[in-house]
Amino acid sequence: MSSELGSKPVETRFDHLAPPSRRLRVRHGFGAVVRAMKTNRNVEILSPPQQALLNQLLPVARIATAGGNEHLPVRLRTHSIICGPSGGGKSFVASSLGMRLGLPIMVINVSSWVVLSAKNEPWTFSLICDWLGGLHGKGGILVLDEIEKLTIPNITDWNSLVMLELHSLLDGLIPQAARLPSSASPSGDLWGESEADEPPDPALRTKLAECLRNRVFVVACGAWQAAWGVMKAEIGFGSTVPQQSTPSSTQLLSISPELRKRFRNEVAWLPPLGLADYLTVSANIASQIRDPKILREWNALEEAAIQEAMANGLGMRVFEELMLSAMLSAKGRQEPRLETIDPPSI
Q1: Is 237 left (phi over 0), alpha (psi -120 to 50) or beta?
Q2: How many domains does the chain have?
Q3: Does residue 110 lie in a domain region?
Q4: 247-292: pLDDT as tens digits
Q5: Closest Cα to residue 262, out of 212, 208, 203, 223?
Q6: More exposed terminus of the chain, fewer Cβ within 10 Å: N or C?
Q7: Range of the domain at 128
Q8: Hey, which of 30-44, 117-131, 318-332 has the most confident mean pLDDT?
């Protein structure tokens, strides 16, 4: 089955997933995958929507991290929001910005934010200060994941405190309560306020704030899952898949207006994957599989996996499950080894 599947062009293998008016006119056979196996192992694989979003944000990230903008008559508003349904790879795109630009990346899940008033340390803002100190005045990418958790209907004391700290972060300010890394302590010692270390340089807070304002690109990721309108559309043979429409910008106001206005008005949308996107990503991943047994199982399981992904909106995570299934299936086809197990002693 795998050899047949690998030899059929994409159009004939997946025609039944789409009505005639929307069928793909792509004719790249998966037989070419085997010939392309010997490629670099660490390849960044993005879906077409992810690549388009990355291209959209790269110029903004370059400007935000290059420095030299402090002399402009107005402060640039570069903080950006990525909005897309769960599983689309929003945080991966945000992290890819740092990889493409060769800049350090810090990813913070807003749901696990530890406020400055918490009894337990390290506080999240203090960790950010330590990261800023490690930049040594150079650029960096700061990713705020699951920003939609700070929604107005769910306001709590914790939410309110996190939003106040986020306001300071996005305004390029370092709260007085935040512990600063000691300029005298070796890297690895976070606070540097023990008796053995010198206290932080008073000018360090100003330096970190300048770095935050002029050398850091802040990008927030949110799903706003309920905001993505879902309707059913026939795709052939009586099956249906969800068709998701892009939320309006006003639906993103579920977060505090004070928080929303600190980001660019233009939202970076990451739409759900379509059939052509799934096929493109699958072909790119298959081209990097070096083990012919795993490749054979990948090709055999691919069609069913993509059908399930289309039906349930699984997004990029379907390929993680597909890879595991292919590896397990390839391993299961090997002849089992007999092992002698000693019976338990009574």
Answers
A1: left
A2: 2
A3: yes
A4: 555 555 566 788 889 999 888 988 888 999 999 999 999 999 999 9
A5: 212
A6: C
A7: 48-269
A8: 318-332
218, 91: one domain = yes
Residue where a domain stops, chosen among 269, 299, 322: 269
**Is 140 in a helix, a strand, or coil?**
strand
What residue type is 262 in one-letter code? R
In tens, the pLDDT along 66-89 reads 988 888 899 899 999 998 888 888
CATH number at residue 198: 3.40.50.300
Last residue of a domain, one of 269, 295, 311: 269
DSSP secondary-structure letter at 74?
S
Question: 205-236 as b/e, with b when 16 or more CB fall inside 10 Å?
Answer: bebbbbbbbbbbbbbbbbbbeebbeeeeeebe
Query: Six-digit token pair at 163?
Result: 């939003």
Is the same domain home to 220 and 102?
yes
Q: What residue type is 43 in one-letter code?
A: V
- pLDDT recorded at residue 193: 44
Residue 329 — φ and ψ, nearest 5°?
Answer: -65, -40
**Stated length of the chain:** 346
